[in-house]
Design goal:
With 288 residues, the chain is an alpha+beta fold. It is built from 6 helices and 16 strands.
Length: 288
């Protein structure tokens, strides 16, 4: 037996398998990006049917699952907004119940309460297009954008939709409890302690620490926006470099903590928007 020849054949077979594996691995990202199921804002999870909507706006499906519409802050009866929560619940019930919808999964696992983080898209037979339930809720003014890691691909479009509803004073935007709080309104900031809020104010100073960045809004005793240092590159890529924010009027959203003075901890880049930019004279100019 020619052992040298057999060894060469075995070595060539191993090399061939390795080459095929490398080609497959190189092709995988292209396949993933090309597949419609891996779009920027979720992936298809099949056709489902909603059977009920509760007061928290959680949606029960006929297959036993419960859907939480990801990336939204919705009114809730147990958080002191029963009339608005009822109106939002009625809006979702009229939209979803008795109809089939496409489940758009935003995260693979369920949340800690066992809910599926998703959106529900309704096919529009007349126009041949699909409609996002989360977008419809925002457009009607029955929710605010609450940036989450799972919804990073959706947030830019959603903020535009939210802005339109806010300007038109629709839904929650007619209620002072959901209004954007000015950084100078210390009484309102104290009243909203522990709640999800949207704050607007001019950045008076930027502080730098090892793991965090601090945006101090005017006036001197105004709220502080605390940013994880790891978000600094992402904010710079998106046109909001932290070091250049002094003098800019920003809008920040998140849970308000007033234990040591009003502050918001920012964990996602989209939690900070530029509301107005400062021109060369230092006056605030509208941001477009």
């Amino acid at each position: 037996m020619n052992f040298r020849s057999a060894h060469r054949r075995r070595a060539w077979a191993r090399l061939s398998r390795a080459l095929r594996l490398c080609v497959a691995c190189a092709a995988l990202p292209v396949m993933v990006m090309a597949a419609p199921g891996f779009a920027a804002c979720g992936r298809p999870g099949g056709r489902v049917q909603a059977v009920s909507v509760d007061q928290r706006l959680d949606i029960a499906l006929s297959d036993g699952r419960t859907v939480r519409l990801g990336g939204l802050d919705a009114p809730s009866a147990d958080r002191g907004a029963p009339e608005i929560a009822n109106a939002a619940q009625d809006f979702l019930s009229r939209r979803l119940l008795g109809r089939e919808a496409d489940l758009i999964l935003l995260a693979a696992p369920t949340d800690r309460w066992g809910r599926t983080i998703a959106d529900l898209s309704l096919p529009d037979s007349a126009a041949g297009s699909a409609g996002s339930t989360a977008a419809a809720l925002l457009a009607a003014g029955w929710a605010r954008v609450r940036p989450e890691f799972e919804t990073r691909g959706c947030v830019a479009e959603r903020l535009v939709i939210e802005d339109g509803a806010r300007r038109a004073a629709l839904g929650i935007w007619r209620d002072p409890d959901f209004a954007v709080i000015q950084s100078s309104d210390s009484a309102e900031l104290r009243r909203r302690d522990g709640r999800f809020v949207v704050i607007e104010g001019m950045v008076g100073r930027v502080g730098f620490a090892r793991s965090r960045l601090y945006l101090e809004l005017v006036p001197h005793d105004g709220p502080t926006i605390v940013i994880a240092r790891k978000l600094e590159p992402a904010l710079a890529r998106e046109g909001r470099p932290v070091g250049a924010l002094v003098g800019e009027t920003i809008r920040a959203r998140g849970a308000l903590d007033d234990r040591f003075g009003p502050r918001i901890e920012v964990g996602e880049p989209a939690m900070i928007e530029i509301a107005r930019r400062a021109d060369a004279s230092g006056e605030a100019a509208p941001h477009r």
